[in-house]
Amino acid sequence: MKLKGVRGAPDLLPHESARWQRVEAATRSLLQRYGYAEIRTPAFERTELFVRGIGEGTDIVEKEMYTFTDQGEVSLTLRPEGTAPVVRAYLEHQMAAQSPLVKVYYLGPMFRRERPQSGRFRQFHQIGVEAIGSDQPAVDAEVIDLLWALMVEGFGIPDLQLRLNSIGDAACRPTIRDRLSRYMADRSSELCRDCQGRLTRNPLRIMDCKQEGCQRLVAEAPKPLESLCGACAAHFAEVRGLLDLLKIPYIIDERLVRGLEYYTKTAFEMINPRLGAQNALAGGGRYDGLIESMGGPSTPAMGFAVGLERVIASLPPALEEGVLHGVYVATLGQEAQRTGMGLLQELRRRGVRGLMDLEARSLKGQMRQANKERVRYCLIVGDEELRRGQATLRDMVKAEQTAVALDRIIECLMGLEGV
Ligand code: HAM
């Protein structure tokens, strides 16, 4: 029997990896500009961390975690998200002592046992950003500005929608929940099966149910924004004002609630309307109560995570993908091959992308390979030419050939555009 990979856990194949690397490089460069440093936490944690952090009433904790018992003792879980692990590390390493506002990012695989479909995987990758230690609306604005810059400037994704809401804090959330529960309880027979369950466990989640009947009810239901306390309303007004100032376009979406329980105040999602059902490219918000609920001191925080698979699926064909670069050394004859190898080593040591045939192809086959590899130049070395101390340099863009003296070849190539 042939062994197969696990459903929902795709391989990243060599022809796809350049795009991923470009996205990762753009991420690192931009995050460094905003003053974020990388943190790497393990792929698994104690199960309790996610149960307490994400919340027992969430889909993730109820049915999507990959949990196993280690050595028959400790229950461990593959991380379904990165915020709870970062908070764990923040507390464990007393990072607050280093700086009152800790700004970190991470990039790596997450695991959720969801039903695989287009844009939804069981192993997927996130770029996450967490700013821990300040309750200032300026942090919300800076974090959202960063997300916008990542998507637009860093990745070049067109047609984005930033959806924004406030879902209150410890002071007003009970009122928000109560008003919604009461409204929905009176109409519970019209709710879908899942939402009937949510009514007691997590009524806010009814807000983003996709079922038509539930949506009809939600349209008329009391919204979180209507019941915000004074402090939350003022915070939200200030965040909006700052986003206006920074010229970040957003849509207020009163139905937006998040799938994790730790959120307070600002909540947001970045949508690509062209992606179909799984169209959220990123999601995040404030989580002012999470650190305290994990046993730390009361500490406000804010962050987001971007789904990399969905970002990659949204990318326009990159300009560089059409650009030819590097050198292919084509050789004819044994002596020429030895000379070619030496030249190639020298070019690579100087930072040039250099390739040659290692499969004894004919010259025609080598030229075909050079085209396939999208090199800008082809250096053709034959035993005959070698005796004359020459080689032929072909510019693949201009389709021009020139004879070059072998002892000047490196110098000559290094001065050319597109090498
Ligand atoms: P989340 O909304 O659960 O938030 O995930 C963030 C993003 O990860 C989603 O918008 C989506 O692009 C991607 N994503 C989630 N699940 C899948 C999946 N099964 N397949 C493919 N992509 C997926 C969080 O994880 C929070 N920790 C974000 C955060 C950080 N909030 C504050 N700080």
Automatic annotation (TrEMBL):
User: Which residues bind L-histidine per the record?
Assistant: E81, G82, T83, R112, Q126, E130, R258, Y262, Y263
Output one GO MF annotation: ATP binding
The subcellular localization recorded is:
Cytoplasm
Keyword annotations of the record: Aminoacyl-tRNA synthetase, ATP-binding, Cytoplasm, Ligase, Nucleotide-binding, Protein biosynthesis
Q: Please tell me which top-level EC class this enzyme sits in.
A: ligase
List GO terms (cellular component aspect): cytoplasm
Aminoacyl-transfer RNA synthetases class-II family profile domain residues are: 20-315
Q: By its UniProt entry, which CDD domains does this protein fall under? A: HisRS-like_core, HisRS_anticodon
- Could you tell me which Pfam families the record lists for this protein? HGTP_anticodon, tRNA-synt_His
Chief subcellular site?
A: cytoplasm
Instruction: From the UniProt record, list the reaction(s) this protein catalyses.
Output: tRNA(His) + L-histidine + ATP = L-histidyl-tRNA(His) + AMP + diphosphate + H(+)
Cross-referenced SUPFAM superfamilies = Class II aaRS ABD-related, Class II aaRS and biotin synthetases
Output the PANTHER family linked to this UniProt entry.
HISTIDINE--TRNA LIGASE, MITOCHONDRIAL-RELATED (PTHR43707:SF1), HISTIDYL-TRNA SYNTHETASE (PTHR43707)
Q: How does it assemble?
A: Homodimer.
The text of the family note is: Belongs to the class-II aminoacyl-tRNA synthetase family.
Provide the protein name: Histidine--tRNA ligase
Gene of this entry: hisS
